[in-house]
Amino acid sequence: MADLIRITGIKGFGYHGVFEAERTNGQDFYVDVELEVDLTRASVSDDVTDTINYAEVTDLVVEEITTNPASLIEKLAGRIAERIKVNFAQAARVTVTVHKPQAPVSAEVKDISVTISR
Questions:
Q1: Which of 34, 42, 75, 86 would give a disulfide with 95, using CB separation of 3.0 to 4.6 Å?
Q2: Is the whole model's pTM more than 0.90, yes or no?
Q3: What is the residue-wise DSSP string for 68-87?
Q4: How far is CA 70 from the centre of its chain?
C-alpha cells in the first residue's frame, strides 16, 4: 500500500527524561506521525469518515506528550504508536518519530530523535 497520511512537527511541552531537571523543568517535544492507510475510498467520497481524522491524531499525540512522563522518548514513541493503532485500526502501519531537540547531551546537536514503526 502506498497511501500515506503524514503529520509533522506536532508540538507539546512535556516532562520526559532520565534526569530530575528534565522532569522538573520540562521542555518542548515534537512528534511526526506517518500512517499507512488505504485512501481509495476517501479520495472518491471526499468524506472525512472514510479516512483517518488527522485532528484527532494530533490531539492524541499532544495528550501523550503533555501527560504521564516517561524516562525515555522510546517509551513515549511506543505509547503514541500503540494508541494510534488502537484508535485508528484502519492504519496498516504507524510510524512515530519523537524529537527532543533540547536533550541534555555534552555536544551541540540540532536534534535527537527516535523513530518506531508498528
A1: 34
A2: yes
A3: S--S-HHHHHHHHHHHHHHH
A4: 14
